[in-house]
TrEMBL record:
InterPro entries: FecR, FecR_N, Ferrdict_sens_TM. Residues 10-51 form the FecR N-terminal domain. The chain crosses the membrane at residues 86-104. Pfam families: DUF4880, FecR. GO terms for molecular function: sigma factor antagonist activity. Residues 120-223 form the FecR protein domain. Keywords: Membrane, Transmembrane, Transmembrane helix. This is DUF4880 domain-containing protein.
Length: 337
């Protein structure tokens, strides 16, 4: 089953507002039930709306309990169906569908898994800077996680999820307090993903982990990629970026400044399609942003904050032929005027 369409998600949001308002009649309840039973897409969209609302309610103060009670009331209307859907959502967690992503992103399961398995991690909307013992500085983007292994042979960062920005330091010899001459044979600095490893050559670079590939952007010096199958190896120079999977490294292209701008919690748009900015916003906030296809390719210019969704959408509304509506405190819709 593909991810729910924007239309189905909007319908789910409208039903949620009505059912939570306390004004729904018995006829409304039956119409909602008919809509829910009409298709698997509607069921996926409804679960998505519930998961977003539950996550948002758990993060926000005095109305959280009231909102949770309203959600529980709606859940009881079709308890058996909801239990089956929730089980399906949990089984799909971490998958490529909207429901699997929503389960990870909004229920707190993702944060718990990261905490259990990572040396360092961030939650949704958080950017964190970490100083390592060799002088290296790491920035973790929203909902990211790493394991760190430093020993006499290597400095290894295992990227478990999300994206990191790295400013490498110099390895230190054991038993000495001063920096030694960097020895890449003895002390290589490596970032590893399931798709391969990247060895720094005295540099600043970012790595983003996707489901089927990893992305590397280099801003200073160079980084050597070796695919996990050892099928290909390539050196990526400053000012360029590439993506790769276990067997193949794509040709380099100009580095996207946003692959390090997120560390300052901004997005730099250079006639960037609106959908790319919205996609990045979604990664940094706990609500939902629906984008109509007819405005998805509008070009955007300027710098926009990633940590204040409402402010960014208001800025976009002033300069683009779009209308932003806020159906719920955690649900925005972006459409044409």
């Amino acid at each position: 089953m593909n991810a729910p369409s924007d239309q189905a998600l909007e319908q789910a949001a409208d039903w949620y507002v009505l059912l939570q308002s306390g004004c729904a009649s018995a006829n409304d309840q039956q119409r909602w039930q008919n809509w829910l039973n009409a298709s698997e897409e509607h069921q996926l969209a409804w679960n998505y709306a519930l998961q977003v609302s539950q996550r948002f309610s758990s993060l926000h103060g005095p109305h959280a309990h009231t909102s949770a009670q309203a959600i529980d009331s709606v859940n009881r209307t079709s308890a058996r169906l909801q239990r089956r859907q929730l089980l399906g959502a949990l089984l799909m967690a971490g998958g490529s569908s909207v429901l699997g992503w929503a389960t990870w992103h909004f229920t707190g399961i993702g944060d718990a898994v990261l905490a259990w398995n990572a040396d360092h991690y961030t939650t949704t909307g958080e950017v964190r800077e970490i100083a390592l013992e060799d002088g290296t500085h790491l920035w973790l983007s929203s909902s990211s996680a790493i394991e760190v292994t430093f020993d006499a042979q290597q400095r290894l960062i295992h990227l478990l999820r999300g994206e990191i920005l790295v400013q490498t330091g110099h390895a230190k010899e054991k038993g000495h307090g001063t920096s030694a001459v960097e020895d890449k044979t003895i002390h290589p600095f490596i970032v590893q993903t399931p798709h391969g490893q990247m060895q720094a050559m005295g540099t600043r670079f970012s790595v983003r982990l996707g489901e089927s590939q990893s992305q590397l952007a280099v801003f200073e010096h160079a980084v050597q990629i070796t695919t996990s199958s050892n099928a290909e190896r390539s050196i990526v120079s400053a000012g360029t970026q590439t993506h790769f999977n276990a067997t193949h490294i794509a040709p380099p292209q100009a580095a996207d400044p946003n692959r390090q701008a997120w560390s300052r919690q901004i997005f730099i748009a250079q006639r960037t399609p609106l959908h790319e900015l919205i996609t990045e916003l979604r990664r940094h906030q706990s609500g939902h942003i629906s984008l109509a296809p007819e405005v998805a390719d509008l070009p955007v210019l300027g710098s926009y904050p990633l940590v204040d969704t409402q402010k960014t959408l208001q800025m976009l509304e002033r300069v683009l032929p779009i209308r932003v509506t806020k159906t719920l405190p955690w649900w925005w819709s972006v459409g044409a005027l």
